[in-house]
Amino acid sequence: MTALVRARDVRRDYPLERDAVHALRGVSLEIERGEYLAIVGPSGCGKSSLLNLLGAIDAPTSGTVEIEGRNVGTLGDREVTDFRLRHIGFVFQRFYLLPILTARENVELPMAEAGVATAERRQRSTELLRYVDLGDRVRHRPSQLSGGEQQRVAIARALANRPSLLLADEPTGELDARTGQEIISLFGRLNADGTTVVVVTHDESLARAARRIVHMRDGEIVQDEVSRG
Amino acid sequence: MRLLLALASLRRNRARTILAVLGVAIAAAMLLDMVMLSTGMRESFRELLLSRGFQMRLTPRGTLPFDTEASIAGASAITDSLRARPEIDLVSPVLGASVHVLRGDSSITTFALGVDPSSQGDYQIASGHDVTAPNTFVANEDFLRATHARIGDTLRIAAGFDPQLRTHSGERALVLAGRARFLYLAAGQLAVAIPLRTLQEMTGAAREDRVSLFMVRLRDPSRIGPVKRWMRAALPTIDVISTADAMARVDERLSYFRQLSAILGAVSLIVGFLLVTTLVTVSVNERVGEIVVMRAIGVSRAHVVQQIVLEGTAMSIMGAVLGTGLGLITARYLNAILSRFPGLPAAIDFFLFQPRAAWTAIGLLTACGVLAGLYPAWRAASLPLASTLREEAVA
Questions:
Q1: What value of ipTM does the predicted structure carry?
Q2: CATH number of domain containing A148
Q3: Using the beta-carbon criterion (under 8 Å), do A94 and B9 form an inter-chain contact?
Q4: What residues contact B194, with CB distance under 8 A and at least 6 apart?
Q5: Which end of chain A has fewer CB atoms at under 10 Å, N or C?
Q6: What is the pTM (predicted TM-score) of this model?
């Protein structure tokens, strides 16, 4: 396997008025293509900060993050936005679907942004919604879907442009146990189909489903283990 | 997709969008009315001046037509010399005077035009016939209403009133030949037209062979410059006013209207701008999370800005289109009120609809909509992604 993501001695400080919060204190991490990795740790340990850096929606204070061999910290706003669009899929705790669009339109949004032709968008969004078992809900708006269904639409949206890396921040945080389990299964299926998945979670069952678990505390990686789940 | 998103965002809060569009429509209506007012009266006046094809007016030096009682002597000779010029197609000498319709001990005062019926350009016959005989006259509707006269009636009409002797210099029994619509007179003004020679005789020696105004029509309007130069050399005591000169004087006199309309138009634009800015800002603040997520999943800053600007623009366009209809209705109502303005020709439209005015109003408001959306759009699209996502998650 080749390294898809390479973070080297990454620091992230958030300046305050008199002091600074050191969210990450020299984190180094490599993620191979096809891996399924969970980042766990107590609140405030720097999990989400690390995920933001791995997803190129934030830049490190020092150190480098390379994704597919590109140092994303050096890219300008336009380039890094385009990089996220084509290479990274995001799943958020609160789904963040656009309530004014249908499930299909939400899935089509990143494809439209990437300039995919309408017919192709239509075909791929249908396939993706079927993949997440929502083939019969394409015309429903988020308000007409349950939490689990909304998260599945969000996953379909994250997969729209065939990203090489799927990042999820507490994807089961807003869901009940049964629905959370459906999402965990879906991530397992996605990884089995070849998608590299990185999840940040407090959810033990979600973490156990991953094949590799990275433990963090106080902005540092304290343990990097192969899951026994 | 961006247009779909923009329209869907507007539909999300329908009541607020409808109220905003109504607000913009009122601003648009006012703006349209002000644009119509600033240009309409001028255009209407120009159309009126050219309505009978006379491009030049000759008046006593330093006056405008019928501004004063000043008159031009030697009218017959001037008429002949003008008619002899090959460039000139038609010459209409006109004398203006006050006359009195005598009824026992009382009288009704009216404005009279002494005209040559073969070349006159001051009125159109609505019924009956023109002043073909020396003892006939035509009158407008207001005159007929005030005197209860009918076509065929003979009225005693006098001119040249001397207030000390309480006598008139001339009195005639004139037959009402027809009803006419006078083009240049104010609303409600009583008016008659009498053959020029008859009116000159009635007004006495002081007005013998005199006129207040010559109206001149050229065969080729492009020859106006040389003809004007010849007139100024040949008739040094007369002012030669072309339509362009008249428009320049009108512009001068209408500057107050233009200033007023410019100020009120600018206020309407500012109100529309602030309204759209406020509503777009409120709308953007309500969905910061959505916007940041769009940016996070790869929607470019430019496209987020475009989508939000489109919302403001769509609101402005809808308001502007609705406001155009509203503006036309209010303009019609206001025009009816202002057309009774004393001293101005009743045929003048204060609010003359011109497609250009409507496009100007719609264009200005659309530009305002674009500008109004720019600041909130740029602010939203420039939010730091990671920290905003964290704040949204905490919220």
A1: 0.90
A2: 3.40.50.300
A3: no
A4: B99, B112, B113, B114, B115, B131, B137, B157, B174, B202
A5: N
A6: 0.70
